[in-house]
Amino acid sequence: MSLWRQTPNIEQLNATLKNTIGEQLDIRFEAFDDDSLRASMVVDARTHQPYGLLHGGASVVLAETLGSTASYLCIDNQKFYCVGLEVNANHLRGVRSGRVTAIARPVHLGRTTHVWDIRLSSEDGKASCISRLTMAIVPLGENGPAQR
After folding, report:
1. Which helix (H) or strand (E) is 128 found in, with range?
2. Which one-letter DSSP state was computed for residue 93?
3. Which of 35, 63, 102, 125 to pair with 54, CA 20 to 30 A apart?
4. Is 73 helix (H, G, I), strand (E, B) or coil?
5. Beta-strand relationship, 80-91 and 28-33
6. What domain count does the chain have?
7. How is residue 15 annotated by DSSP?
8. Over 90: is that where the pLDDT of 1 sits?
9. % helix / strand / coil in the chain, to the nearest 5?
C-alpha cells in the first residue's frame, strides 16, 4: 500500500522547482515507489565548497527539498500545510563531481509531525550523507501559505 495521498507526478514536481534554490542547484525529482521519493543534484562549481568537494549545505538543501516535498505529497493540502522543524546531516564521504542521488523514506508519519530519513549517495553508489528531516503538519488557516 502506498503512503502517498497524492500520487507523485515527476514532471509537475520538477516544475515546482522553477525560480527556487532547487533550480539553481539543478535538483531533479526522478522517481518514486510505494514508500520512497528520489531526487538528484549536480556536483559542480554551483555546489562545491572552496576545496572542490560537495558543500554540506548543498546536501542539506537536497535533503530538505526532497523530504518536504515528500511530506506535502502525504497530506491533505486542502486542510494542512507542512513546514520544516529540524534538519540534520552526517557527511560521510566527499564527492567532487557528477550527481548525488537522494532517497527519502518515512520514519514517522503522524498527525502533527513527519520524520524522514534521507540518504545521499554518489554515482558509484557510495553513501555520502545521511540526513533526518522533521516536518510540522499545520492546519491551513484563512491566511495560510499559498498552495503549490
Report:
1. strand 127-139
2. S
3. 35
4. coil
5. unpaired
6. 1
7. H
8. no
9. 20, 40, 40
CA 114 to chain centroid, in Å, comes to 13
Q: Is the pLDDT of residue 58 over 60?
A: yes
Predicted confidence (pLDDT) at residue 49 exceeds the cutoff of 90: yes
Indicate whether 128 belongs to any domain: yes
Structural domain of 38: 10-139
DSSP-H helix ranges across the chain:
10-15, 21-24, 56-72
Q: Are 79 and 139 in contact (CB under 8 A)?
A: yes
DSSP three-state, residue 23: helix
Cell 499559498, residue?
Answer: 146
φ, ψ dihedrals at 61, nearest 5°? -60, -45
In a domain, 146, yes or no: no
Catalytic residues: 64
Task: Say if pTM beats, i.e. exceeds, 0.70.
Answer: yes
User: Residue 16 belongs to a domain with what CATH number?
Assistant: 3.10.129.10
